[in-house]
Amino acid sequence: MSILKAPENVPVWVDETRCKACDLCVSVCPAGVLAMRPEASSILGAMLEIENPQSCIGCCDCELSCPDFAIHVADKKEFKFSKLTDEARQRAIDIKNNNYKVLKV
Ligand code: SF4
Ligand code: SF4
């Protein structure tokens, strides 16, 4: 659970100065909210993208799995999260099958 104040109207956010683009958070997200985008200036040539914030269910699995404390989830009292939909669940599967990369480039 994040103790940081969420940026306005944002359920989940990434500190790009800490993210090493390891894919771990993408692999645990059940709702297809996260994916990696190409980023030439990053060591691994990628950076985490909060691609579908409207589908975040606030489970905190991404925050709890990040080894670098680079991703944060808003407090449940500060943000109304959505429910996990069949579409979001399928998108999560599609992103993982797409090697954790964004589906639309
Ligand atoms: S788990 Fe952390 S370091 Fe890895 S991609 Fe996600 S935010 Fe970046
Ligand atoms: S809080 Fe849960 S649903 Fe939201 S981005 Fe993190 S892992 Fe995905």
CATH architecture: 2-Layer Sandwich
The largest sheet has its strands arranged as: 1-4
Rough outline: globular
What proportion strand? 15-25%
User: Which regions contain 5 or more consecutive residues with pLDDT less than 50?
Assistant: none
Structural class: alpha+beta
Mean pLDDT: 94
Largest sheet: 2 strands, antiparallel
Q: Using only CA atoms, what is the Rg?
A: 13 Å
Organism: Halarcobacter anaerophilus
Domain 4Fe-4S ferredoxin-type: 10-39, 46-76
Keywords: 4Fe-4S, Iron, Iron-sulfur, Metal-binding
Protein name: 2-oxoglutarate:acceptor oxidoreductase
Q: Descriptors for this entry?
A:
alpha+beta, Alpha-Beta Plaits, two-stranded antiparallel sheet, 3 helices, globular, binds iron/sulfur cluster
Structure description:
Residues 10-39, 46-76 form the 4Fe-4S ferredoxin-type domain. 21% of the residues lie in helices and 15% in strands. It is α+β, with helices and mostly antiparallel strands. The protein has a single domain (12-97), classed as Alpha-Beta Plaits (2-Layer Sandwich). The strands form two sheets. The chain has a two-stranded antiparallel sheet. Strands 2-3 form a two-stranded antiparallel ribbon. It is globular, with a radius of gyration of 13 Å. The mean pLDDT is 94. The structure holds iron/sulfur cluster (2 copies).
